[in-house]
Amino acid sequence: MSQEYILEMTDIVKEFPGVRALKGVQLKVRPGTVHTLMGENGAGKSTLMKCLIGIHPPTSGKIVYDGREVHFKSTLEAIKAGISMIHQELSPVPERSVAENLWLGRVPMKNPFMVDHKKMREDSIALFEKLGLDVDPDAKMKELSVAKMQMVEIAKAVSYDSRIVIMDEPTSALTDVEVEHLFRIIAELKEKNVAIIYISHKMDEIFRISDDISVFRDGEYVTTDLASNLDHDKLITLMVGREVTDMFPKVECPIGETVLKVEHLSAGRAVKDVSFELHKGEILGFAGLVGAGRTETVETLFGIRHKTGGRVWKDGKEIDIRSPEQAIAHKIALLTEDRRGNGIVGLLSIKENTALASLKRYGFPLNHKKMISDTEEYVEKLRTKTPSIDTPIQNLSGGNQQKVLVGRWLLTDPDILIVDEPTRGIDVGAKSEIHALLTQLAGEGKAIIMISSEMPEVMGMSDRIVIMHEGYTTGVIDRSDFSSELILKYATSETSDQAAAGKS
Amino acid sequence: MNSKSFDFKKFASQNFIWLVLIALVIIMGIAQPSFFSVNNLITLLSGEAVKGIMAFGVMFAILSKGIDLTIGASAGLVACITASLVQPADYANALHPGLGTLPAPVVLVIGLLIGAAIGAVYGALIAYTKIPPFIATLGAQLICRASAKIYTNRPVSNLSESFRFLGSGKIGGFPVIILVFIVMFIISAFLLTQTRFGKNVYAIGGNDQAARVAGINVEKNLILVYVFCSVCAALAGMLLAGRSGSADPANSGLNYELDAIAAATVGGTSHTGGICRASGVLAGILILGVINNGLVMLKVDDNMTNIVKGLIIVGSVVLDMRKNAKKA
Ligand SMILES: Nc1ncnc2c1ncn2[C@@H]1O[C@H](COP(=O)(O)OP(=O)(O)OP(=O)(O)O)[C@@H](O)[C@H]1O
Ligand SMILES: [Mg+2]
């Protein structure tokens, strides 16, 4: 183990108007290692990385990279010096092709005036091949799933041949298969002596790949240690400052009558034939690989996508939902997967974002007092970390934005709560809180659909799991039969619902 | 104030536009002391009221990430139609000689309804076909202007006293047009901050996908935005006719949309959507008014005035972008 550091950041302070996000933290990264940053939502991990690569130059502090003191003023400077970053919040150019997104800002030129489209395409294919990715370089970025976009983003960061690659929650949108893929890429990078700064809230991942772990809390540096010296519980205690006992505080409660019945639902090419029933007091998990059509299914139920076939009943009455407005009127709520795309309204405050789906209840003229007290209630309940409820939501850390959105939907007081990757980017403490909340809501007689790509989460929280594959429901498993092998079998099989039922 | 000390920096950045206005007013006052005469201030305000009301309307369109180029032409069209309804019956040159003079309140309502209808048409076009508002309203502008010219090929004049009251009347020596302007400011500010409609428009401008998922009927609200904008233009058109005593199909309201957009922009309404404050737009209107008025008083020629205005408009947006960029 070499003692030499490729990167040393010391006494980094970062102040935003009214917030001291970093209060003098340090980070020392060895080449050829995976150095993981841990900390609760809002601890300052992303901010520290943005200080490094010049998005938010630090208020004070010293950064030594490769033996020299550096002050990057833009990501371009950082990239040129050999530091690239995969951002927590994706920022693709949706209308342009994958290849163009990949080589954005450095397109190969035929001559000083003309872009070399052929080379761009070939380079993309070569890169994808090297990384073993299955993505069409000619597809428009917006046609890709969030997971594919994330893989393109990863490919892009790797393609710079950097000496440090920063990955800010790269796996939050990936399923297990792609995560494995990413880990192979990381291993290859390590072999080339590249240092990886890794940010994630997923414990098992962290212990699998980390060499060093640094912990931050509320903008302060806590400690750095070899991963081998730490374990799950120690790490959580360092992060949270208290013990988190139960990750999946599942309480099995009596399952009531059917609230939602879906038969042969279809929507274009993404959703082909989906049937299931949802009961009062039930948490129904949805598992499947990326592209299985889970998100599309719930989007169709919620009226975001156009339904092309099938029937839906709520409380025994057939309903035909054509817009989210109607879905909300039927007391259905959907916490979407794409937080930035169709979740937050970045410029608006926590208060306005919380109230957004419930504006009707505030009357005319709007009852601001009620809006404030409701928002405060959910900020408190979900322990959202924010300077004030008038802060624009875009200034919050990713995990805290997610909590605000959870609050938005709970405020609508739904009968059916659909959550698509509800704990994406949420720290362990908050995650167990959200799980507890879901359990509590189920106990109150609400029906919950939970899509999750995290196997332990679906298995830990669900009463039954519906498994999808390429737009079809391929199986339904009861809690007593849960096993990851069985889920994976259905998730990769072509068998239809009936056939699967016959086999098991 | 208790523990929190007064944060001047924050106050200044939030009310930057008002500080600019105050600075301008002081400069003008020093350069030309008669600037502060009551008469001059009243002239200034009555002069800006028409475009100012249009600015309040177009502010909503810009907030929703759109734009409305129709308003000058629709103001002109409504001015011509309503003016033709209030000409005296015995006036030989009347457009509809047999019709006689309709009561002013009735004509006012007719004018506003026409405005609403025009806005509803291109609003629906924008909301449902998703064509860019710039294009939709550019087309509507051409159609409205041409319709005005088809409706009458000469200026419509000799309007009834009661119709002219809104544009040029006075209550206790105070011009009614300024009162209407103030009322429209209050209505706009109220809509923005105190109603569901206002919150919806902020959300649509900020992230229309998120707004839709949160259950907001994006199409309906966009139509309402353009209806409101067009109603403001109709009102402005009638005030304009009332103030000048006639309506000219070719020139009434010509290019007013640009001044209105400029005022809304100087007032901090962001063309990337989702940001605006009615008080800012009020300041923007007054800033452009002070420049117009002050430079006329100082006998600066028109071209110079326009250069100053151009610089202020562009400069204010540059400042605004920098302010917002820092936040991101
Ligand atoms: N542009 C900004 N303006 C104001 N405050 C900000 C800004 N960016 C971050 N902050 C604040 O800095 C703090 C740290 O945020 P940061 O995004 O670094 O957290 P994080 O550790 O990455 O959390 P997460 O795990 O949720 O992603 C938060 O309190 C956040 O509100
Ligand atoms: Mg972060």
Measured distance between first and last alpha carbons of chain A: 51 Å
Number of domains of chain B: 1
Low-confidence stretches of chain A: 496-504
Would you tell me the overall average pLDDT of chain A? 90
As a percent range, the share of strand residues of chain B is under 5%
Number of strands of chain B: 4
Question: What general form of chain B does the structure show?
Answer: globular
User: How many beta-strand runs of chain A?
Assistant: 20
Give the CATH class of the largest domain in chain A: Alpha Beta
Q: What structural class results from the helix and strand content of chain A?
A: alpha/beta
User: Secondary-structure element sequence of chain B?
Assistant: HHHHHHEHEEHHHHEHHH
Give the domain tally of chain A. 2
The CATH architecture of the largest domain in chain A can be given as 3-Layer(aba) Sandwich
How is the biggest beta sheet of chain B arranged? 2 strands, antiparallel
> What oligomeric state do the depicted chains represent?
heterodimer
Question: In percent, how helical is the residue content of chain B?
Answer: over 70%
